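Methods: example folding runs. The two proteins below were folded one after another, and each record is reproduced exactly as written to the output file, sequence line first and structure-token line second.
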Amino acid sequence: MLRNQWVSYARVSFHALTIAALLVGLIPPPLMQAVLPSAAAELVDALLPTTPVALAADAINGAVFRDYNADGAHDANEPGLAGVTVTAYDASGAVAATAPSGADGSYTLPGLTTGVEYRLEFTLPVDGSMDALSPSAVGANNGSSVQFADGGATGVDAGFYNPTEYAVAPLLFTSVMNGFDVINLAGQSFGDAKSSAAIAYNASGTGPTQTYIVPASEKGATYGVAWQPSSQMLFVSSYLKTMAGLGPTDTPGAAGGVTTGGIYLITPVDATNATATLFIDLQPIIDTGANPHPLPTDTCTSALFAGTTNGRCWIHEDILAEVGTVGLGDLDFNADGTVLYTVNLHTREVVAIPVGIPAVAPAAGDIVSYAAPTADCANPADAQPFALAAHADDPDKMYVGVTCTAYSSQDPAELWAWVYEFDSGNGSFTPIFNSTLNYARPRSVGLWGNCTNANCPATWRPWQDDLSLMHIVAQSSTSTDPMIIAHPQPMVTDIVFDQGDLILGIRDRVADQVGDRAGKPGDNTNARIWTAYSGGDMVRACADGAGGWTMEANAVCGGVTGAGPGTNEGPGGGEYYRDTFSLNGGTHPELNLGGLAQVPGFTTVAATTY
């Protein structure tokens, strides 16, 4: 009895297993019908077709992302990467599915078989638009650019990074200007004073630690800063401003031994005793303009100070017309770090300097200049390029910022900012963004009672080279009180991108023309101190989802409200970035000096201010 029951249970179990096998398509029905009892065979006929059931179709899903810190993890501040082709290959090597990553980096490979293994390849565009990217390190969310996954798998992600953007604990580096002829004052306080500073990008507080690393006499006044991460090489470029001596040439006897076209290499960047050496002098190659500063042999008198010295010439020098039109503008590497770009302010050209990695100064014949676009300004003669930014991924493309200065007409309505995409492959400039600069900004400073919105205006004004036509504020009728210049003139001097949004740094030209606590430009007989209030700015334009950008309005950009709505300072009546400080009862709006930095992977933007 027990044996017969066991046999009966075994038969039932065998039949159940057989039908289960048929249901999943592992055994062909005709084969099993031949060995089953007739009753079971009839049941099979009723339940199953005469052909095997195919395995279920399924998809593989995942995302492609920018792994800024190359750790293999998809951090919250690392965006998706669009336009990467994801292809699945079966065991025979045939393409089973393919799809591009979308705007958010996500992708779906449909029509694959559940449980079957596929080889996935993540391929960057063949047009070169992402040639600067490399597969990131394998990690929690990155299995490299070639992976294996079964049909139905999710979270099959891939990360890419740009080695030139890699930064874990970045340092900020900026220039500090020193007065007078710093080259010929080496060994004295002015010449030996450290004129460049480094500070941690994530530093905070009222007095974060900063390190001054380079003597002024080794590089002079600079503005542009460029970093080549793979070689750990830092470069700065000559900038012209009043009372700030330029850097040395390799021919000390020429034009006072200084150059308006110097690019200097600073090494090492992490030491207090760094040195700056001339990497290349562009002045004799592309004509960056003559040195307008006093020569070392010049001597002058001054109603401000007794004696006849070279320094008296500096405090009264008149270089109003040369500021922003002589020397070099911004300085940046392209996306793969092989080409160093700058702007020749004198000829209004973008200059490409192929240097390779590590950077080596090229022959003069290898340097290429491209005329910047001018036709979009009301008067093409008023177009002045300055700002640069690298395209994030395409080594052949850069961004160039141009200011329409309205110098010819003196009409504020013609003040305009333009940003162009430059393609070195064909030398073309394509406009991608433009905006008026004729927006409300109440006042430059509020440190004195009579410095009102009307008396110390911060509203941008057309470029002006004539001191007598600038807005002058006398603090009192006393002849020894300072004369204050409040005549902001915009120079678009820097461009950065933050999560696809565009940020412009705008420098006030008048501060570089007149200086702080100087003599009257061009008049050694004037006994009053002259000071220009700088009133720079930074503005944000947010991506509109259609390939363009929209300027912030009343501090709102991309649906996000910034720090200063309703202040009557900025486009649309407010400002996204609130650049104001209060000290000892006074206020100082519009602090920006035009320099910007945004480290990919961080959620902050750094700006130079004072």
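Second run, written to the same file directly after the first:
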Amino acid sequence: MRPFTLGKLLSLGLILTILLGSIIGCGGEAVAPTATSEPTQAAKPAEATQPTATSRPTEPKSTETPKPTATFTPTQTPKPTDTAAPPTDTPTLTITLTPTPQPIPAEMLTQITTTYMIMIMAQMNTEMVAEMARRVASGELSGFDSLGAMIAVSAFIGAVLEAMPSKTPPAFWQPYWDEVEAIHSAVAGLVKRWWDKEIDSGEVLKQIGPLKESLVSALSAAEERLAQEYDVADARELAQVREEAMSAVQGIFPTTAPSEQPVATPDDLQSGGLGLSREAWEQAHAQSGTGPGPYINYDGGTYSITFVDGNLQHLERNYGADQPSLADARSAGALLIPADSQLVRSYSPEGLPELIVDLYLSESLKGRFESDVWIEGEPGNFIIVYGVFGGKVPRIVIGTGNNP
């Protein structure tokens, strides 16, 4: 990732400075060998022993061989030493490198990298919520895919909510960190309200837009501030890191593509709800918004529905203040299931005596779904769950499989 590239660049700058300093030091010592190499010419005194002609012994006077000594005078010519002087001038090049910005200390680099990545995750969470709401509202995301997306996004949000209080940004970043944390908390609250069915995907889309803009603005300001503080990072480079991360959001969510060849047409199934195609269901019911995750609300919230493979797989019948008895609720439930449904048995889950579960089998339902929707049941199984509180039933839940 780029933040680590930035750290490597800083470390590389430090290493180059050290290496350059050592090279300059070696250059100064290299002057000495050039001076000592000259005395090799002093071997000429050996040539001065040419007067070895012993036929003239009196001439040893010419032992005043000052000529060899004269050959030393060239050695003292400071010119070789002068030629070595320029390398000693080269340190001025080092001085031009020294003013480069000091590298960020290792502990500061870790702090910056960690907090920056958390802020990027906060933006990713915001983008994911916006994308999920858009796809749910358009019908691109539904069924188990939508439910799974909601659970996954909530987990990411929870991780950032947990991480932010335990991390401390550099002092110059604190204002931006606080702003990102506040915006991300607002996004988390928005998702919770969606999950609790207080708002639908349309309202999420309406509120998430300004939050996205504020978050982008805060992160851009944080990047600019880092670049000014250390003069080592181009804010555009850091922004590119975020852009690459955000571009990945599009591919996170699976899209529930409508089946090109429906397993069964609406006319093939006699049902008041479960197993019907979306088209057949919406001929009799008006969509009134979206609930949390995969749910789509109809008739002012009376029904909350999920579709899988284009057909109704899960249905909730919600009652307001006028709640029916168990007997009346069962009569209402019978109108929402396939006509060939056969009751297999009734039971209450262990530890939940207030729940009454009726398990059914429908042969016509078996061919309605390509996906495996028969959790803990056989193909064709479905259940109706009644929650009985004070003799009244506030809600009926109908779904495929046998998993209350």
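Comment on the second run: The longest strand covers residues 311-318.
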